Amino acid sequence: MTRYALITGASSGIGLALAEALARRGRSLILVARQRDQLESIAIELTQRFGVEVLFRACDVGEPLRLSGFLLELEEGERQIDLLVNCAGIGTSGPFLAQDWMTEQDLIEVNVLALTRLCHALGNSMALQGGGQILNVASVAAFQPGPWMSTYYASKAYVLHFSEGLREELKSCGIKVSVLCPGPTRTAFFGTAQMDTAKLDRLALMSPEEVALHTVRALAKNKAIIIPGRRNRWLAFSPRLSPRWLTRKIAGAINKAYCPR
Ligand SMILES: NC(=O)c1ccc[n+]([C@@H]2O[C@H](COP(=O)([O-])OP(=O)(O)OC[C@H]3O[C@@H](n4cnc5c(N)ncnc54)[C@H](OP(=O)(O)O)[C@@H]3O)[C@@H](O)[C@H]2O)c1
């Protein structure tokens, strides 16, 4: 029976690069995101290049009813999924009180609720199958509070802590859980979060392909927390060295420089 890796957020950026890296290693895939046409052309391309089966499903995972429908389809389709990659995510930036509430709610629905629900549904299927692997995508933002991107940083702190907790809990079911914490990466993320992309372009951002290569190697070794790149490991570690008030001030000053006023 074919086993699939299901990847959310596979239509662009890090999710797409992970899809390609896994297809290159012979994995059959189920790609999920909202942009159907994009998913279709990626599925065709990956199948042609790597000879693997690539299915796709357009779904807004931030819409609980749509996600329920998709999960029901998966259950009825009886496809074995032995790797879940929760990569779909969005960011917002700027003063919290000035944000449109629906955008903040969408962020929590996608980054927190959908990710948790997919872990619950597919974690149960994996437990029945006797095992599997889950990779949740957090960020180096998960290691500290982030004024002017407070909701985003807090959502990633949730993903980090939730994933570490699950890792211990699910060991006995044969399910390995890892969490990926990339640093700034060249993707559409910053544009979606309405950050100053011209300023960000001047930074040496990692490519999504570099992040994906590091990640698939670390996944094979069942690493708990995957942080690609030395600079990003420093970004994740450095908040431990400064008092909390200073960490908040530094993160706030950096975010403010790249956020809309
Ligand atoms: N780029 C960075 O610097 C960076 C750093 C640390 C962590 N991350 C994290 O990495 C993950 C991937 O982001 P990225 O940088 O690759 O940005 P991206 O290129 O904007 O990718 C985001 C992906 O999420 C999907 N998505 C967004 N909302 C969705 C929804 N409601 N339902 C289903 N899919 C949805 C998008 O597809 P559709 O638009 O087709 O739905 C897209 O495939 C995110 O969790 C992000 O927080 C990024």
UniProtKB/TrEMBL annotation:
Question: Annotated Gene Ontology MF terms?
Answer: oxidoreductase activity
**Keyword Oxidoreductase in record:** yes
Report the residue ranges that make up the Ketoreductase domain in this protein: 3-186
Q: Name it.
A: SDR family NAD(P)-dependent oxidoreductase
Q: Which UniProt keywords apply?
A: Oxidoreductase
Describe the family membership recorded for this protein in Swiss-Prot or TrEMBL: Belongs to the short-chain dehydrogenases/reductases (SDR) family.
What Pfam families does UniProt report for this protein, alphabetically? Answer: adh_short
